[in-house]
Amino acid sequence: MRRDEVSARKKPSSSVLLFQRNPVMMKRKDQTPLVDLCVEKGIDNVKYLGDVSHVDHDMLERILPHCTLDQLMHIEKSTQGMDLSPITDQLWRKFFEKQFGINCTNEVVKKMKEKRVSFTWLQLYEAKVKRVAQTENEAVDRLAQRYKEEDARKQSRKIKTCTKLPPSERRFCGDNGSGYNLSVKSSNIMKKSKKDFLNSLEVKNNTAMKRRGIGSTSKYLTF
After folding, report:
1. DSSP 86-146
2. Which of 16, 88, 143, 214 would disulfide-bridge 12, Cβ 3.0–4.6 Å?
3. Residue 187 predicted with pLDDT over 80
4. In a domain, 198, yes or no
5. Region 187-196: what's the mean pLDDT?
6. Would you say residue 129 lies in a domain?
7. Does 41 fall in a domain?
8. Minimal CA–CA distance to 127: which of 144, 140, 112, 141?
9. pTM of the entire predicted model
10. Residue 152, domain member (yes or no)
11. Alpha carbon 208 to chain centroid distance?
């Protein structure tokens, strides 16, 4: 065997030298696939998602579970020409159960089975929210009407109270102060009558006659 043939066999190829210089290239199978990178990017920016009709179903099944209720609702309303219910139906059931309770969720399932009807959980969620809002509005209206009636009743009581006579005008109508006022007036009238009587001419003459009689009788009495 010639020397040049032996040297050619011992000399490594350029590809081998490349892998030796770059060990990462030899671990290509361990690298993250491009799809996984896209999914991670979608999860990180899920709040910015809107119309996802162009996104693959498998990717959406991995991205959409990371949405909040409002984010998922925005995606549902923004997506055109694509039915997301096969992907989002169970997500909406979880939101329904979280907001209205497991008992309400089971009752809905029971009624659908009894009536042999089927609705998506998004439809059920929207219908339940609308019904709850309507019930709350009716309760608020009833409460407002009750307060209105109570205010009207209080106003009517105030008007009735103001129509009564004030205390100063009720003294001469048989209240507690009427006896005192009448006695004072009677006393003043008696004093005036007595004074007029004493000042009359007849009383003065009688008084003078009595004084004379007393004087004439006393001069005959000696001790």
Report:
1. HHHHHHHHHHHHHHH-HHHHHHHHHHHHHHT----HHHHHHHHHHHHHHHHHHHHHHHHHH
2. 16
3. no
4. no
5. 68
6. yes
7. no
8. 112
9. 0.54
10. yes
11. 98
